[in-house]
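Sat 14:20. Reprocessing the chain from the morning session after the first attempt stalled halfway. Input below, unchanged.
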Amino acid sequence: MFFNSEDEIVKIAKRCNTTIFVVSNPNNIKIKNALYVEPEEKTVITIEQIRTILEGIKLKQNEDQFIIIRPADKIQPEACNTLLKTLEEPGEKIHFILITKNLTKILPTIRSRSTIYLQHTILDTNTIYASTEIKELSKRLLAAKTHDLINIAEEISKKKERSYALEVLSVAIEMAYKTYYLSKKEVFLNKIPKLINAYDNIAANGHIKLHLVADLC
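Finished this time. Tokens:
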């Protein structure tokens, strides 16, 4: 899904518990009476910050409460795990708004629990922040037929770096979202759960080549 202006964000967020808005400049987003979580020390969003905001929303809310996390790609991994538990059942009036310009850097486990909206101005896949090599492998992975997966998986696993394989998958996920929103072809939407599954399994120390083939078939 996509949106045109900042004015639409509140209306969209009210319909969902958790939304991710991909914008060109996260700092430009201003929402009245919202709670903001932004990087403090070391330019990251820490687990302490997430715990503090979660403690503050435990009481039952009578009015819509918006929690804005920006840039959401700066959340530390351990803070993401703490946040995940709340994203599953945040409460009827609680709305989490995650704002980023780099969807690739948000963990797939967070994306899978969110409704994602992209601003028209950044729908082009050329706005993905990754090296040319990563982008090319991600495109091949996204377009691969079953018989092509073994060769691509071998090429990725030769690097012997788990982070490399995870970056390829993460970029492929972002490309799948953007291509679906632009083309409306459900084949790209259907690929996303498989890509997320492969990412999660490899991130959990699974065999890189095995999961690239088995999970994406």
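Residues 162-183 form the longest helix (22 residues).
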